[in-house]
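User: Structure tokens for both sequences below?

Assistant:
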Amino acid sequence: MSNLQPLVIQTGADWGWNLHITTSLGAPLVASNLEMEMRRDRSSLSQLLTRLDMSGTAPGLISPAGPGMWSLTLPDEVTTQIPTGRGFWDLFGVISGRRLEIAAGAVEVRPHVTMAAS
């Protein structure tokens, strides 16, 4: 399992992130059926902030972007619903027929700030 950089999401704005994962030998990770959960704390019973998956049934989408690469997106109508604060994310996928946790990290949800025109 990899621990990656913290994600920063602005509420009320479209969000995207490109994820690139390699094996311990440096080869692109081969995984399918990716799902990401963002939660308030590390417990699987804690508040679910949002989910992303490859099937399009979750609020966010994970799309293949190349070998070992995926594009993660959340539309503004979803980020508007995520409470501000810190949390954690976990990425699960199927590798060699087994569902495994393949990456994890922190997430920070910040209020969207706009500047007034002068």
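Moving on to the next sequence.
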Amino acid sequence: MELTEGQKAPDFQLKDQHGKLISLKDFKGKNVILYFYPKDDTPGCTKEACGFRDAWKEIQNLNTVVLGVSPDDQDAHEKFIGKYKLPFTLLSDDDKSVMKSYGAFGKKVLYGKESMGVIRSTVWIAPDGSIKKHWKNVRNAEEHPDQVLLAIKN
């Protein structure tokens, strides 16, 4: 699905690392950074998660929450959070339905080989539930959290 800035963000309900159902509606009135990543505890995903962790205080001060979404299960998320002291929520999208509705699952090319998989991307959802910005295909996981923080500040 193609997301456009200004459109209403697709609602979702996913389980967090504790098995609690989380919905986009839970964050009405806040900025939501919804970032999609392939797998817990892999090099690029760890750099990205730790970047959001390191900017966490600044992000919170900007009336913003971070939600990471991957196909990993609750146990993998708990271990990932514990290992890297991640202060934000990770959500499990095992059937990839939310990823598909946000354009974060589909054809991708890695090392010249085409396959289906999670497309590293991020959506900034404004306090009114509309899409403020969509980073469709994040190339540098390590630098991306800083790009997001800069965008929110401006």
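User: Anything stand out in the second?

Assistant: The chain has one domain: 13-153.
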